[in-house]
Amino acid sequence: MLIVTFASFVAAVVRTGAWRELVEEFSIVSLHVQPALALSLLALSASSRWLRRVSYPMGVVLTLGLALGATAITHRVGSSFYGLEPYAMDRPLFLAVAAAGLVLFYFHLRSRALSPALTEARLQALQARIRPHFLFNSITAVLPLVRSDPKRAEAALEDMADLFRVLMADNRDLAPLADEVELCRQYLDLEQLRLGERLTIDWHVDNMPRDAMVPPLVLQPLLENAVYHGIEPSPDPGVVSINIYHVRGEVHVVLRNPYRKEGQHHAGNKMALGNIRERLALHFDAEAGLESRVEDHAYQVHIRLPYVKAKPEVRGS
Amino acid sequence: MSHPQALRVVIADDEGPARNRMRDLLQDCAASLPIELTGEAANGCELIELLQEREADLVLLDIRMPQMDGLEAAQHLQKLADPPKIIFTTAFDTYAVKAFELHAVDYLLKPIRLRRLFDAISRARALTPLRLDMLKELAPEARTHLSVQERGRVILISVPDIVYLRAELKYVSIRTREREYLVEESLTRLEKEFASRFVRIHRSCLVAKAHLTGFERAAEAGEGGWSALLKGVDEKLPVSRRQAHVVREFGKTPL
To answer: For residue A218, what pLDDT is reported?
Structure first.
């Protein structure tokens, strides 16, 4: 409704502006139209708080009514002010309702046309993506195992299949935390294969609520970041630690990785963080949050989310 | 180095399994091509060290490596007396691959196919040496090291170790805590490349912000002259009047 208020204002300005440019005589028309529009807008914006609460059809009726009332008032006042013959009221009133109706109809169509595309685009943008490097480097890492250690090669390929199955799935619904952690283990096994002793993983998940429902791929991209920014740029071995626990109805996930100012891979990190933050907000609103900070050579991400178990109504957006 | 002699190959890749894979493939090639694996390195610095000890004809050089990546290592390599030919390897570097295509630089995409490697190695001796300007263009980010040629060796100087850089006629002298080196570079270009790290205090001098401890009034300069004080090096560098604003800004903005 607020959008309608604002948009009708824009539309009105455009419309009257065009009129004025078109023919000078129409300036007389705008003399009539402008005050009515201004008053309608004033009334609309003043009542926008209430309008937002009512249903859409009710809002349409009220908006039209407001436009009608405003036109009637300006017509009355205007004609007495200019000392004009008060002529028939029906024409301006009809025009006002028609104009307001048209504007409303236009925005209704527009929102219907635009919003599915917007939502789709947003969801697509929010789909977690794995770095292509990871795929190609992992395959390269598995290939020598095919000869030297076929059993391990098999396990690695199975991990890869599971990981990509989740990455390519529609991840709009919440999934159990235990599944996400399992996925992270598979992902980290692959990274370990590639990086060997350069990567040490430190799990602290004894107090983890396995049944907590979380957005899928809420942790894996963060671990990917931890490896990409914390381990890969350094020739020395490093530790990635994962700490998951719950206190007072909240689930906490704390990830830490070494931080080096020198030789950082640049960019890419903020995108993943923003992405996860937005998905958390879509599902849990202000109840969830993500904070990141740098402290003595360590980079830390802390996620906090409500401890909800599988329930049909826990579905965001 | 007569022709029937085996091609001496070095593998440079930070990931062990990737080196294993390359070793397997080279063994497969060796059945029909005379190849000799001379050594393996896990990053650019190790590679240059290795090549000082053992000569090689070809380096299979991964682009992304910690400490010093392949594109930078390729630049420093050119200072060796007899630089090896280079074939880059990469998992996914759209930008670099485009440039390689453009400049007809040989590269292999990981996972590498035996056939592709075989073809590349067969042609290796005929490869044209890489052009330094092209390599620089490919790696627009600041280097991690500067390199100096001394008595047939290439010495790498880690950029964070540099205290100051001073222009001297055709050369730039690099001062570290331990000693001084001369390189053929331009001070202006170095200033641009390492803008976030060095500050210009004189027309001919760039000082590392990390090594700058403060300023003091220069006794000999008299009217308003300043000298820069350095960490780890007992020298005072004159600040030119034109750059005196550096003194005023020092400490105000986090350097």
So the answer is: 92
Q: Could you state, in chain order, the average pLDDT of each consecutive group of 10 residues for chain B (255 residues)?
A: 76 96 95 95 96 95 94 94 94 88 91 95 89 85 92 92 94 95 93 93 94 85 78 90 87 61
Task: Please tell me the pTM assigned to this model.
Answer: 0.73
Task: Quote the crossing angle between the two packed helices A2-22 and A26-46, to the nearest 10°.
Answer: 170
Domain boundary at B138, B154, B188, which?
B138
Most B CBs within 10 Å: which of A139, A140, A146, A191, as the mutation test of the B interface?
Answer: A140
Does residue A288 surpass a pLDDT of 70?
A: yes
Residues B120, B160 share a domain:
no
Q: Are strands A213-214 and A238-247 parallel, antiparallel or unpaired?
A: unpaired
What A14-23 contacts at long range (C-beta under 8 Å, 24+ apart), as own/partner pairs, is: A15/A99
Token pair of A107, please? 């925005």
A61-101 pLDDT tens trace = 777 777 777 777 776 776 666 665 555 667 767 777 777 77
pLDDT attached to residue A72: 75
B103 touches chain A (CB under 8 A): no
Residues B101-128: pLDDT tens digits? 888 899 999 999 999 999 999 999 888 8
Report the C-alpha gap between B243 and B228 in whole angstroms: 11
Which residues have CB under 8 Å from A21's CB, separation 6+? none
- Domain match, B169 and B184 both: yes
| CB–CB contact A136 B17 (8 Å) | no
Q: Which residues of A sit within 8 Å Cβ distance of B? A: 131-133, 135-137, 139-145, 147-148, 193-196, 232-235, 262-263
**CATH for A132-306, options being 3.30.565.10, 3.30.420.200, 1.10.287.370, 3.40.395.10:** 3.30.565.10
**Domain spans, chain A:** 2-126, 132-306
Nearest to A137 among B15, B42, B67 (CB): B15
